[in-house]
Design a protein that fits this description.
The chain is built from two helices and five strands; from the N terminus they run H-E-E-E-H-E-E. It is an alpha+beta fold and about 100 residues long.
Length: about 100
C-alpha cells in the first residue's frame, strides 16, 4: 500500500467523520452508509523532454449518503485537484461522483 494512498484514506475519513471509507471494495462487501467509495482509475503523467517526470494518481471518489442535503459532497469538492462529475440516486441513496488527482 502506498504512503500517498494511506494519506488520501486518512483525508477522506476525516472529511466523512468515520472509517466508512472503502478503497476498491469487492462487490460482495456490505458497506455502511454514509460512506465514501474510491478507486484509482488512471495515472496522469507530466512530461519534460518527452519523458514523464511526475505522476499523479487519478481516483474516482463517490460519496454515498442517505441525506440529499448532506454537506459531504461540498467537503469533497473543496479538496485540491478535485472536480464534481455527476449526481444520481439509486436505492434511496444519493451518489456524488468526483475525479480527484492525488
Amino acid at each position: 500500500m502506498s504512503q500517498r494512498r494511506i494519506e488520501l484514506q486518512a483525508i477522506l475519513e476525516n472529511l466523512l467523520g468515520s472509517e466508512n471509507v472503502y478503497f476498491q471494495p469487492p462487490a460482495n462487501l456490505e458497506m455502511e452508509y454514509d460512506c465514501i467509495r474510491y478507486s484509482r482509475i488512471k495515472i496522469k503523467p507530466n512530461f519534460a523532454n518527452n519523458l514523464p517526470y511526475l505522476l499523479h494518481d487519478c481516483y474516482q471518489v463517490i460519496s454515498i449518503t442517505k441525506n440529499p442535503d448532506s454537506d459531504l459532497p461540498h467537503k469533497i469538492a473543496s479538496l485540491p485537484m478535485c472536480s464534481h462529475d455527476s449526481h444520481y440516486t439509486a436505492e434511496n441513496l444519493h451518489h456524488d461522483v468526483f475525479t480527484l488527482y492525488y
